[in-house]
Amino acid sequence: MALPGWLESARRWVVRPPGSTVDLGSLWAEVARAGELEAEVARLDDDALVSRGRGGRAEFCAVAREAARRELGLRAYDEQLVGALALIDGRVAQMATGEGKTLTAAIAAAALSADGPVHVLTVNDYLARRDTEWMWPFYQRLGVSVGWVTEKSTAVQRRAAYARDVTYVSVNEAGFDLLRDGLCTDVADRVQRPLGAVIVDEADAVLVDEARVPLVLAGSTLAGPDLALGMAGVVRDLRPGEHYQLAEQDRTVHLTADGIAAVERALGAELYAVQNLDLLTAANLALHAEALLTRDVDYIVRDGRVELVDGFRGRVAQRRRWPDGLQSAVEAKEGLTGSGGGSILATITLQAFLNRYSRVAGMTGTALGVGEQLREHYRLEIAVLPPHRPCIRRDEPDRTYRTAGRRDEAVIAEVTAVHATGRPILLATPAVADSEALGERLREAGIACTVLNAKNDAEEAAIVAEAGAIGAVTVSTQMTGRGVDIRLGGSDQRDHDRVAALGGLYVIGVGRHDSARIDDQIRGRAGRQGDPGGSVFLVSLDDDLITRYAPAESPSVADAQRIAEQVNLEIHRNTWRYHYLLEQHRVAMADRREQVLTTGRGSEILAGLRSAEHAALVRLHGADRVAAVARTIVLHHLDTAWADYLGFIGELREGIHLRAVANLDPLDEFHRAAVPEFRRLIPDAEERAAAVFAALDPSGADWTAAGLGLDRPSATWTYVVDDDALGTDMSHFLAGLIDLFRTR
């Protein structure tokens, strides 16, 4: 019998929701079968429950639902089970805020763990530990072990956590552990196992927004002469427009002729003399720090340290720093003690790291906006899950004002009027400074408010949890990865019905972001699980988004966001074009290193070069000892060669854009220089290792690394860095893109 038209339309929407590139029909059928088994499974004792879960997917869904009910007091919705199956199949599941992604991921991770280790990658340490502790009874009931890793975890703790069936860890920390493992000289020192399946939380932010950002492992070195502090004082006295010019949408800065003269007078030296290259570099870094990086926008100063603000999440970025020179320049600008520098030992982009997993899946509330990039860079499709209850949030059209001043006056007036009713309000701002300024204006207007930004991110969970209480006014930088639902009536929902009657949480966006996805995440804080709610964005025509990206003749938010998103897509592609070659070289070097570390390859390389004495070395010292020394020597020279190569690549990228002046393609020229350099890398390293091996004293009793002159860095540190913080080819490329898209 044919279904009524409206029911058939509803069925099609559930099977393939708008925008979904995955047909969910078969998944819904499996979940329906799990529902039929629910009563039967509920009667099983704990041992029988685990055994039943080893059946088919429908049986596992029924068992997982029952385990969650017994241990967590949560009954997984059908939509959550469909989402879990989509993750198991290697999809990106789009689920709205408040729809239960944490339990969905746990169900999928438990199932995937039957085939090997599973990592659930979070956006910060807090969520890694919180989700582990929250879901631990569920995993235990299913016989699945689980652990977590944070920045403060020791090597022993990391090794134990990665040995579990499921490991929760921030994406950066997992990547850093991969880099550190890649420099181990003994297999026993590694902390990770071979990478298996991964489930990525906030998948659009991690897989796309941050994917082009390299993770860096550096070795500590003694700081050189401190030019940065003196140079900061010199550039502080320079005047914009006269001594330096901002260019290309304020993304680059350069000294004018008057500026060069002023700096040279202050230093008593010629900036562009060959012997003063260090002075010129320090001057450019100091100028960049002074003119382009703003305190409480790009970074904050806390506890005597410069801490970078993550532009995607509005919070302090864990272990993030700029390249050494720029980091020192900003520290000098703020009058802080320099944190020292070091040479790069290893690096990998998040995109390359994530593609090393055997199976990738992810969750987010806003995947559709990056569907093209997910397919292009990860071959991932999107499964859009309908909400468990229909969304009844009222989203108002944008209110546009000519200036930021008028916009902010309207914000205060709107908050004052709504706050008088007791309805809770969440105000979202693009930067730390904006949130603090708005908070101060609200207090001056007699409205008590709580400000959540990078300066108090440690208290964020408690602040967000109470943002839905009667009369609450919360000012926050953007909400990605906060990890806490805003419940109407406060965390205990005591006044839920009263707040619902007032219209629910009211979200006010003060300016829009470069990405519409971020704005959608902000809106999504209201209207959770069928609750009432409302949202509106107040924007001004002099907002940074508009002035940087919108066509001058007809500025609009929609056009500006479209251009910004296209520019970011092209930046991602362009960055990957450079890093693709570097990743191929990294894999080749890692393969050779693995051979040396885990086989007798080191001895084979060196024994052939010193065959006459090799037998004698074995009779004095034994084959195992000689093999260990050979391995140590070869690994040292491979690692040193790779670090030197990364330094070469960094210098090459810094100036490769200048090749365009001669009508040469910078990417072609990059390849032309990098490929032959790498081809020499391994042979040269092994030749140097052979020379050290040939000089060994056969009677020497102490063949330590130090004794052989093979010292490694006394300490290592990690950081995440923009692909090209000082601009160069990327800035020129970006400026051209903006002009191109503006004219379309």
Automatic annotation (TrEMBL):
<feature type="binding site">
    <location>
        <position position="80"/>
    </location>
    <ligand>
        <name>ATP</name>
    </ligand>
</feature>
<dbReference type="GO" id="GO:0005524">
    <property type="term" value="F:ATP binding"/>
</dbReference>
<dbReference type="GO" id="GO:0017038">
    <property type="term" value="P:protein import"/>
</dbReference>
<dbReference type="GO" id="GO:0005829">
    <property type="term" value="C:cytosol"/>
</dbReference>
<keyword id="KW-0472">Membrane</keyword>
<dbReference type="InterPro" id="IPR000185">
    <property type="entry name" value="SecA"/>
</dbReference>
<comment type="subunit">
    <text>Monomer and homodimer. Part of the essential Sec protein translocation apparatus which comprises SecA, SecYEG and auxiliary proteins SecDF. Other proteins may also be involved.</text>
</comment>
<dbReference type="InterPro" id="IPR036670">
    <property type="entry name" value="SecA_X-link_sf"/>
</dbReference>
<dbReference type="InterPro" id="IPR011130">
    <property type="entry name" value="SecA_preprotein_X-link_dom"/>
</dbReference>
<feature type="domain" description="Helicase C-terminal">
    <location>
        <begin position="410"/>
        <end position="575"/>
    </location>
</feature>
<feature type="binding site">
    <location>
        <position position="485"/>
    </location>
    <ligand>
        <name>ATP</name>
    </ligand>
</feature>
<feature type="binding site">
    <location>
        <begin position="98"/>
        <end position="102"/>
    </location>
    <ligand>
        <name>ATP</name>
    </ligand>
</feature>
<dbReference type="Pfam" id="PF21090">
    <property type="entry name" value="P-loop_SecA"/>
</dbReference>
<keyword id="KW-0067">ATP-binding</keyword>
<dbReference type="Pfam" id="PF07517">
    <property type="entry name" value="SecA_DEAD"/>
</dbReference>
<dbReference type="InterPro" id="IPR001650">
    <property type="entry name" value="Helicase_C-like"/>
</dbReference>
<dbReference type="InterPro" id="IPR014018">
    <property type="entry name" value="SecA_motor_DEAD"/>
</dbReference>
<feature type="domain" description="Helicase ATP-binding">
    <location>
        <begin position="82"/>
        <end position="240"/>
    </location>
</feature>
<dbReference type="InterPro" id="IPR011116">
    <property type="entry name" value="SecA_Wing/Scaffold"/>
</dbReference>
<dbReference type="InterPro" id="IPR026389">
    <property type="entry name" value="SecA_Actinobact-type"/>
</dbReference>
<dbReference type="InterPro" id="IPR011115">
    <property type="entry name" value="SecA_DEAD"/>
</dbReference>
<dbReference type="GO" id="GO:0043952">
    <property type="term" value="P:protein transport by the Sec complex"/>
</dbReference>
<keyword id="KW-0811">Translocation</keyword>
<dbReference type="InterPro" id="IPR027417">
    <property type="entry name" value="P-loop_NTPase"/>
</dbReference>
<dbReference type="GO" id="GO:0031522">
    <property type="term" value="C:cell envelope Sec protein transport complex"/>
</dbReference>
<keyword id="KW-0653">Protein transport</keyword>
<comment type="function">
    <text>Part of the Sec protein translocase complex. Interacts with the SecYEG preprotein conducting channel. Has a central role in coupling the hydrolysis of ATP to the transfer of proteins into and across the cell membrane, serving as an ATP-driven molecular motor driving the stepwise translocation of polypeptide chains across the membrane.</text>
</comment>
<keyword id="KW-0963">Cytoplasm</keyword>
<dbReference type="Pfam" id="PF01043">
    <property type="entry name" value="SecA_PP_bind"/>
</dbReference>
<dbReference type="GO" id="GO:0005886">
    <property type="term" value="C:plasma membrane"/>
</dbReference>
<dbReference type="InterPro" id="IPR014001">
    <property type="entry name" value="Helicase_ATP-bd"/>
</dbReference>
<dbReference type="GO" id="GO:0065002">
    <property type="term" value="P:intracellular protein transmembrane transport"/>
</dbReference>
<feature type="domain" description="SecA family profile">
    <location>
        <begin position="1"/>
        <end position="570"/>
    </location>
</feature>
<keyword id="KW-0813">Transport</keyword>
<comment type="similarity">
    <text>Belongs to the SecA family.</text>
</comment>
<keyword id="KW-1003">Cell membrane</keyword>
<protein>
    <recommendedName>
        <fullName>Protein translocase subunit SecA</fullName>
        <ecNumber>7.4.2.8</ecNumber>
    </recommendedName>
</protein>
<keyword id="KW-0547">Nucleotide-binding</keyword>
<dbReference type="GO" id="GO:0006605">
    <property type="term" value="P:protein targeting"/>
</dbReference>
<dbReference type="GO" id="GO:0008564">
    <property type="term" value="F:protein-exporting ATPase activity"/>
</dbReference>
<dbReference type="InterPro" id="IPR044722">
    <property type="entry name" value="SecA_SF2_C"/>
</dbReference>
<dbReference type="InterPro" id="IPR036266">
    <property type="entry name" value="SecA_Wing/Scaffold_sf"/>
</dbReference>
